[in-house]
TrEMBL record:
Pfam families the record matches: DUF4282
Protein name: Uncharacterized protein
Species in which this protein is naturally found: Acidothermus cellulolyticus (strain ATCC 43068 / DSM 8971 / 11B)
Keywords: Membrane, Transmembrane, Transmembrane helix
Entry superkingdom: Bacteria
Ranges annotated as spanning the membrane: 12-35
Length: 70
Protein backbone atom coordinates (compact mmCIF):
# COMPACT_ATOMS: atom_id res chain seq x y z
CA UNK A 1 0.00 0.00 0.00
CA UNK A 2 1.44 3.37 -0.92
CA UNK A 3 1.89 6.34 1.37
CA UNK A 4 -0.67 8.39 -0.58
CA UNK A 5 -3.31 5.69 -0.22
CA UNK A 6 -2.55 5.45 3.49
CA UNK A 7 -3.11 9.19 3.92
CA UNK A 8 -6.43 8.89 2.09
CA UNK A 9 -7.58 6.22 4.54
CA UNK A 10 -6.43 7.94 7.72
CA UNK A 11 -3.89 10.66 8.57
CA UNK A 12 -2.55 8.60 11.47
CA UNK A 13 -2.10 5.54 9.27
CA UNK A 14 -0.49 7.75 6.63
CA UNK A 15 2.10 9.10 9.08
CA UNK A 16 2.73 5.57 10.35
CA UNK A 17 3.29 4.38 6.81
CA UNK A 18 5.48 7.36 5.97
CA UNK A 19 7.75 7.02 9.01
CA UNK A 20 7.89 3.27 9.64
CA UNK A 21 6.54 1.05 6.89
CA UNK A 22 7.97 3.06 3.98
CA UNK A 23 11.60 3.03 5.17
CA UNK A 24 11.27 -0.60 6.23
CA UNK A 25 10.09 -1.56 2.75
CA UNK A 26 12.96 0.42 1.24
CA UNK A 27 15.52 -1.37 3.43
CA UNK A 28 14.04 -4.77 2.59
CA UNK A 29 14.17 -3.97 -1.12
CA UNK A 30 17.82 -2.93 -0.77
CA UNK A 31 18.60 -6.23 0.93
CA UNK A 32 16.82 -8.13 -1.84
CA UNK A 33 18.74 -6.35 -4.62
CA UNK A 34 22.06 -6.72 -2.77
CA UNK A 35 21.52 -10.48 -2.46
CA UNK A 36 20.57 -10.72 -6.12
CA UNK A 37 23.69 -8.84 -7.23
CA UNK A 38 25.90 -10.93 -4.91
CA UNK A 39 24.46 -14.05 -6.55
CA UNK A 40 25.40 -12.75 -10.00
CA UNK A 41 28.93 -11.86 -8.85
CA UNK A 42 29.40 -15.32 -7.33
CA UNK A 43 28.02 -16.97 -10.47
CA UNK A 44 30.48 -15.18 -12.75
CA UNK A 45 33.41 -15.79 -10.40
CA UNK A 46 32.61 -19.51 -10.45
CA UNK A 47 32.44 -19.33 -14.23
CA UNK A 48 35.89 -17.70 -14.42
CA UNK A 49 37.40 -20.25 -12.04
CA UNK A 50 35.93 -23.14 -14.02
CA UNK A 51 37.50 -21.71 -17.18
CA UNK A 52 40.91 -21.64 -15.47
CA UNK A 53 40.47 -25.23 -14.27
CA UNK A 54 39.41 -26.36 -17.76
CA UNK A 55 42.46 -24.69 -19.31
CA UNK A 56 44.77 -26.40 -16.81
CA UNK A 57 43.18 -29.78 -17.52
CA UNK A 58 43.70 -29.45 -21.27
CA UNK A 59 47.44 -28.78 -20.91
CA UNK A 60 49.71 -31.70 -21.74
CA UNK A 61 52.07 -32.92 -19.02
CA UNK A 62 55.08 -31.82 -21.08
CA UNK A 63 53.84 -28.25 -21.47
CA UNK A 64 53.02 -28.13 -17.77
CA UNK A 65 56.55 -29.25 -16.92
CA UNK A 66 58.17 -26.65 -19.16
CA UNK A 67 55.95 -23.95 -17.71
CA UNK A 68 56.99 -24.98 -14.20
CA UNK A 69 60.69 -25.01 -15.13
CA UNK A 70 60.63 -21.78 -17.14
Amino acid sequence: MSVITSFMLSPVFGVLTLLIIGPLGFILSLIYWRLLMEFFVAFFRIHDQLNVIAQKMTETPVSAMTAAQG
